[in-house]
Amino acid sequence: MASEDKEREEQLVREFQAGNLEVFEDIAAIFQRQIYSLAFNLTRNQMDAEDVTQDVLLTLYRKIDTFQGKSAFSSWVYRITLNASYMKLRSRKKDKLVSIEETFPAFNNSGYHQEIIKDWSESADTLTFSNETRENIGKAVDQLPEKEKVVFILRDVDGLSTEKVGEILDLSVPAVKSRLHRARLFLRKKLSNYFEEYHSKETQKK
What we know:
Order of helices and strands: HHHHHHHHHH
Distance between the termini: 42 Å
CATH class of the largest domain: Mainly Alpha
């Protein structure tokens, strides 16, 4: 985030806390898209994401006076969005997620992979993703355990820095990197076969 953008956000928050309620519209305009994007990536449901967005904006309006500035305001907004999204998921009684260990590649006693997993991610950047491909990726991300999933979404989907993710989740940088690595391994394992088949079909078309 550019320093001028951060300064503008801080100024708007100070004005709102001081009683200038009109600036909340500007605050909402800045964060509404980010709130919706994170909520949708966690709930995978448009209506739920819209509900979460409204809930978060209402929470910001009512409780912005409790923001003490110990972290960036945007980090505070992300944390509120995470909490609201998890509450929505719990209310839906989401099916139990698979264990991440069950889909990790196997390692031998020396610490090396017992099976060779093709790194589809190297060629994935060059693919034009179809709706089917995006759906398969989404399903794989949905199966990530909660701790790894939120790090993957914030870091790789929303594009936040490792340091920013750590601030939002109250984690050290090494902890963020560790969870992100586990998430990427999980997804590589889940999607390797699909991308091999996809690449083979695309090659046959040429």
